Structures are given as C-alpha cells and as structure tokens.
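A further point concerns the way the authors explain their paired sequence and structure data. For illustration, here is how one protein appears when written out as sequence plus structure tokens:
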Amino acid sequence: MTALLIIDMQKGMLSPTLPPRNNPQAEANIARLLAAWREAGKPVVLVRHISRSATSVFAPGQAGAEFQERFAPLALEHIVEKNVPDAFVNTGLERWLHVRGIRDVVIAGVSTNNSVEATARTAGNLGFSTVVVADACFTFDKADFGGTPRSADEVHLMALANLHGEYADVRTTADFLGG
C-alpha cells in the first residue's frame, strides 16, 4: 500500500509577499495525484505547518494555516500538524504508517528544499520506499550560503538532486498517472 503525503498546501503559500517561485503547474499536478489516490481508495495524508510564532501566517487561528480549498482533507484522510519542516518529527506519522502496514510513500507539496526535502530524507532513513514527485512540488528564489541569488528552479533542482538515489526516487506526475 502506498500513501500520498501532501505537504503544506495551505492558504499562506498563496501570499503575494513570498519570493518568486517555480513550477506554476505544481498545484494542478498535486490535485491530479490527490484525485487518483482518492479514486483508488488509497491512503492520503495531508500535512500542514502550524508555526510556533504568533506573527506567522501559519500561526494557529490564522487563515494562512488553513488548507487551500482543493486540498481540504476528506473525513477519512489523515491530518498531520507539524511545527518543524520534517513531517515525521513529533507527529506520530511514522507510527500511523506502520500501524496500517504502509511501507511506501509518495511526497508532493511545498517547499521542495524545506519541508519536502526534510520529510523525504527522514522517510528514506526510516526505511520507507520514498518517491518525490518533482512536478508536484515547488519552491522559492533563495540566496545560497555565499550570498549568490539562486532562482527557484535552481533551488528546486538542487533539492531534488540531494534526494534522488539516496533518500528517494524522484519521478513525475505522468509516471503515476500515465501522461
């Protein structure tokens, strides 16, 4: 059994104050994956970040902490609330997967170099067969450690390179849905 983990698809990710991003088709691809998982009756886990900072758009009670409408969980879907990038840390996610005999996870969401990468690394380290769906993830422009500005595409591709072959297999939406 394979679970789909959708990470941080919250209203706060739509903020116009965020830096430029890549993969404008990511939400459509995530929605396609979600529809396929739901239609097949496969397990879906929706992860959301709940900030410890009262001024964050992801603070409890803020509209930004809510799921975007098209990613709102159905009654039987599992919700994970996290306070750090990694969806496995202090959430019970590992146990939830093990109790259901789930050993395979497919990860989509935001941001590629933060919560997606952190969660995929832990999933791989814990022995889950892990796939990250490259075109169902996105990230934002960011300066590297030396101060050189990097485009969201560069940041995205480097994060995927960090994961592929070591912690996860990086694939596309078409790999799962055929076309």
